[in-house]
Amino acid sequence: MKSLKLLLAAAMVLIPMSANAQDVLSARVLKENQATYVDLGSKRALGYYGKRNGKCDLTVMVIEDAPGFKPVSKRLDTSAARLRVAINPGTTARVESDNGRTVAFFCNSDARRLTVMTLGDKTDEPTI
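^ that's the sequence the OP posted. Answer follows.
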């Protein structure tokens, strides 16, 4: 538990802050091939990663929110966009929504863990 707290603290420090700094709403640490689902407000993201060539090889599917959408549904009435990115150990990749919500993916130093953080205003509720 102590190492998880240190990892989360390190990940939060490495996220670039802008003039409109965002608050960490929630965070979770993934192992290889473990999936995560993130509510980005007007969009939804489903992603997973694997270690490849010493990096976190991340795949994220992003879709528009649709009435009645369920992440386990076999039928989606909207199309998805797939994002694939290799994240260097110790760095962060971000997916930003048009409503101010962001999901940040932090690859730990040996690419064996990926920290997923939902960012937004303090008034937003946790979504992971």
